[in-house]
Amino acid sequence: METGNITTVTEFVLLGLSNNPQIQVVLFVLFLVIYLLILTENLLMLLVIRADSHLHTPMYFFLSHLSFLDAFYSSIIVPKLLENLLSKWKTISLLGCFTQVFLVIFSGATEACLLSVMAYDRFQAVCYPLLYMVAMDRKVCTGLVGASWAIGMGSSLVNTLLLAQQNFCGPNVIHSFVCELPPVLLLACSDSHMSIASILTTVGVLGFGTLVLLLGSYARIIMTALRINSAMGRSKIFSTCSSHVLVVTIFYGSGVFRYMTPASGSVLEQVLSMQYSVVTPLLNPLIYSLKNQEVKAALRRMLARQPRLTF
Question: From CA 113, how far away is CA 69, in angstroms rounded?
Fold first, then answer.
């Protein structure tokens, strides 16, 4: 659309992962299977946590929100990715792109806060076990989760509103499979310093701020574990927290690097985006269930309660 001598972009083109039709079909099948697995795994985690009273603890309350968030996060990205893999015109409207940007930042910021809250929960459980249920009562847990969602919403709203004030007059090709703030800002014709400063501040405060809380919590946990004389006790503590550390490493390693470096449309950037938007939601339930004896026991109890067919 043209306004005077200025052409205004009304839609963007997502280049996606490949232009080869045969490869696109293979990718479609692959990501469809991955998406179905993500939904199945995370919804199963939610069902197991809700159905088993042994898992009605603060740790699994936070984990249930993480599972819901992972299913939501992948649903923001994968359906549009699947559509574009089969579509000749890989376009997304301006509003649709801004909505995706908003939801991606919202999900990422909320997950960063949730991971920090889960580290604090483990810190209380390991370092102050006698006061744990008092310190982490339902009111505190609900407040921490509510604050995580609210911070994610606020940071996303600020960054998306600043993005919406930019002018886009062409080109309109995004070198990615998803609308994210860094590659979209590359296409802005107006001064984008405010948006860049805002996203860097968001990543700096939320990313590194929550990372400091995480590292502080785990440093105290390690110090407490080393003071325990029992090798079994130390092993139990490290086993409980190892899955969380693995999730944090995957999420922060890819997410912070993706948003703190200038966008260039490189293959590495697409790999990083795939890492925290598709791979992490797929791995999180597997990491928690395969490394957690309580979850596996709860799943066995749930399956044992199912009525058996008789002939």
Answer: 12
